[in-house]
Amino acid sequence: MTHRPILALALGSAAAAATAANTDRPNVIIIYADDLGYGDLECYGAKNVTTPNVNRLAAQGTRFTNAHAAAATSTPSRYAMLTGEYAWRRPDTDVAAGNAGMIIRPEQFTIADLFKSAGYTTAALGKWHLGLGDKTGTQDWNAPLAAGLGDLGFDYSYIMAATADRVPCVFIENGMVANYDPSAPIEVSYRENFPGEPTGKDNPELLYNMRPSHGHDQSIVNGISRIGFMKGGGSALWKDENIADSITDHAIRFMRSHAEEPFFMYFATNDVHVPRFPHSRFRGQNPMGVRGDAIVQFDWSVGRILDELDSLGIADNTLVILSSDNGPVVDDGYDDRAKELLNGHSPTGGLRGGKYSAFEGGTRIPLIVRWPGHVPAGEESDALQSQIDWLASLSSLIGGRIPRSSAPDSESRLGLLLGTDSTPRPWVIGQASDKTLSLRTPEWTYIEPSSGPAIVPWGTEIETGYLSTPQLYHNTDTLQQTNLAPSHPDTVASLAAILAAQRSK
What we know:
eleven-stranded mixed β-sheet; four-stranded antiparallel β-sheet; alpha/beta; 16% strand; single chain
């Protein structure tokens, strides 16, 4: 006879009772990958990499093939998703430095505020990249931050201030540096180095873990040089190979602590973003080197969350949304041979462009949604949709209320998100790194005229999609090779008018 531990029995009974009581208010988990491309997962046709846990999620839910982030870079994409407002409406939403002040302001209504106001316990774990503290460059990293995620509706947070390639390289837990080391006070600057501190540019002999290919040659942490300058940190400094373990462990603890009540968890991974430095147990599992290994590591984190939901007995009452913040990039500043080792794999799934770009590879992202008994299992949907609508859609799900003037661009399309309604969004707007906008309908993609280089200028070799004249592509032209703007002036005028109307709102 098999005996389960008393604690496990208690957790299981409590979770079962909670599930019965909260079927009208499911838990919601957003798994938000970083720089994971439309073609980077096995269930989306990826070559050379296996993602069994994401495959499991897709088999138990609906996989979407025409879903879009609101922007082709991280900060504006996350801003739009979390607030329901396009980032291009604000002048200060470009890719943020690690010492940026809060871009989402405390007075703004967020997706976390939505859930908190409906009685949910809320958490954010992993990559943040939306600023901390009141003003850029004024944070005291050695004390509680004056403004943080607690001011944005999150009851608990364990985050990276920005990205793994930017200082400060420490986790922030509930507004304070986690595992703070008082013997090594932290200083951060994005203007100048601190006296006597080595950099990747001047001290390449200290780069024992990874070297830059372009940029990324300032302060050195864990044998890897970064963007920005940092001094101190001591035992609070992260080790890149342990980032996935750390944020996943904290996510599991949060789920266990709140299995008896409805919770919302924003779980934002770092794995595929540079510097790609997965744990040794994931190394060498595919022929694509560390970028492929990082995808495997991401899949492992997904598996741990799914397994924990099963263990707690709350999987059937949890809506899981898995997606990415923007399109992929191969060489984004570190010499990890990611481009040379693709071996036939296409991170964009054959789409043109990628991260930073106005072409479709910049914003089309994987999207998988699972909620047993509510989302069709094993289905695929090609209905056009955008992450900008998640806030309003999830508000409809939980019976929430959005304050007047908040989330101005988010529309409730809950059936579309859950895969029960195939009516596409009439159009979605995408934003390139220079704020060039594109507008995609079920039939056409329009890219507005803009100036700028044809190729991303800092070494990624990605096409920007910038052109001084209008671009129009029929969506049967999946590679966006034939610009039909000259022969379809009425269509160009109609789509340009939609963009103009949205800008004037």
